[in-house]
Amino acid sequence: MTSENKIFDSALAYHAGGFSVIPVRPRDKAPIPAGWQRYSSTRSTKEEIERWWKDTPNANIGIALGPANGSDGRYLFVVDQDVLKDENRMPILNADGSFKQMGDIRGCPATLSQTTGSGGKQFFYWAPKGYVVGNPTPRPLINVKGIGGQVLVPPSIHPDTGKEYAWDIDELLRENIAEFPQDALDALLAERATSASSALPSMSKVLAGVPIGQGLRHSGMAQVAGYYLRAAQTPEEIAMARVALYAWDKEMNKSPEPWEERKRELDNTFEGILKREAAKKEAGPRKWNDHNSPQASKPIFSSYANIQAHPIDWLWKERIAIGKLTMIIGDPGLGKSLITTGTIAATVSKGGSWPVDNTQSPIGDVILLSAEDDAADTIKPRLEAAGADCTRVHTLQAVREVRDGSPTERMFSLKRDVAALEEMLTTLPECKVVIVDPISAYLDDTDSHRNAAVRGLLAPLAALAAKHKVAIIAVDHLNKNSGERNSLYRAGGSLGFVAAARAVYIVTKDPNKPERRFVVPIKNNIAKENTGLAYTVITGRNNAPIIDWDPDPVKITANEVLATLESEEERTDTDWAVIVLRFVLSPGPMSAKKVFSECKEAGISEKQVRRAGKKLRITPKKEGFSSGWTWELPPLEDASKREDPPQGAEGNLGDGGNLPDGDGGTQS
């Protein structure tokens, strides 16, 4: 049995056992499907598994942890016990050759476990009924993986060591998994609050504040050692800090000195910083504010009996609400900014009627933040072409602050300057809408791929909208995951954008009319499901572009449009792969392995190569039983024929261009 068959059969077996299986990149820990976290709550299907492993036969196997695997309200989670690693990310061994690990995890009942490719241990448990387990790190080298997390399972390959994961005794069966007692689980997770491990800085955080370059090595190593040792409290954490210092030096300082000499310098610096930090700790702990004092945080709450209900105020009835956040997303060049300026801003500024629906807009001021379009040569002509009252449209150009006694100007930041935006709203009491285009330009250093960070950034913005009774419209581009057919997962870098907005619309091309555009709802939490709109971009009287809305709504869904556009992208990719494959094979016959290798260097995936081979009517050949498969361009007269290539064990590229089993062409 080939390794691909072994992996695929194992994936199907895990699915049959009731587990939520997902594909992970070969010899990696990164899941392949975009938005894979949804499989923590909804179990993957057999059809999805078959499709995933057809596309990537040697993918590692992951189990999306959480309620999708459980029953009766129980969640599947894993306690991960890692091993100490050296500066090369290889496990540190004891004298007898065993792996150096942390101590046993007290209170854990015997359960199904596996040994990872790096020598660590992972223990599988059911959480008590109704108990939600996240992904904390209770102590050094011990992680808990719960809902929203995933874990590799046998026969997956570890990315660093190349070794297979292996079950210790039993296989992955539901009856082999023990339930973790609630008292013991409470105790384990409570360690997170007092453990220093969660405070150990990440390497990226350390590097952000450490000077790198000629003549800075010694000051740099002192800073790195200090960063880690200030957080370390146990002998294990101190050992981890030393290993981290080695890793930093090896990665960032390409010194010609022999490693033993460099290591001696690193150890001397480390010991000096260690003594200094120990002396500080002996001087006594830092004094923190008394959380029971009157200055401590207090809850703000009220009874719903004291809250007065009122209907939703609409800017555009049942499409854009006042006091809420709305998002408009789409690829560049489709006219998103024309919608916000030429339709929304222009209509609100003069209190006009909305297109298609013919409902009335309230009249008011508009605040526009635009990071991509010039105010003078782009936005102003568009507003004039659309007939806007420009006295009511305002641009927030920058934020002025005083630094070192001198006034300076900088770009507006949603992280730092919501108060400045509120000050502007106070001076414009009739403001009805704030447009942020694109929102990704105003995130400052917020990680747009982290849900919690995005939600934390957008929450004050949503509160501002409710307080001042304005609609806030955020424009953004689609993320790069063109293969994702669920439109909810195409907004920005995180699902947090879609979650925070009350309504989200996607702008796409009409697959049948390239000059036509669709504006289709992805979600609308505060109104009945409404129809999409369609428009084309035409030239106005001042030669600026304006939108010409179709008089009738459209009933296509966002997912239907994305599925059609994805098919077009696949065809485009295949056409490019045909060009590359024809060039690779132009010198003559070539082994299948070399074909895939050459095409990979040109950025063409194996799947695309197979499709291109089918389109070029290539018939793989095998000279002998022990020899590999050979690819060769057909003669011109054969390539021009319309009939399908010959079928059979040796000559069939198969559905989607799949080769039969053989050297460089294995497909399970």
From TrEMBL:
InterPro entries: DNA_primase/pol_bifunc_N, P-loop_NTPase
Region annotation Disordered: where it falls in the sequence: 624-668
Annotated Gly residues bias: 651-668
Domain of life: Bacteria
Family matches, as Gene3D superfamilies: Bifunctional DNA primase/polymerase, N-terminal (3.30.720.160), P-loop containing nucleotide triphosphate hydrolases (3.40.50.300)
SUPFAM superfamilies per UniProt: P-loop containing nucleoside triphosphate hydrolases, Prim-pol domain
Domain DNA primase/polymerase bifunctional N-terminal: 11-184
Protein name per UniProt: DNA primase/polymerase bifunctional N-terminal domain-containing protein
Lineage: Bacteria, Candidatus Zambryskiibacteriota
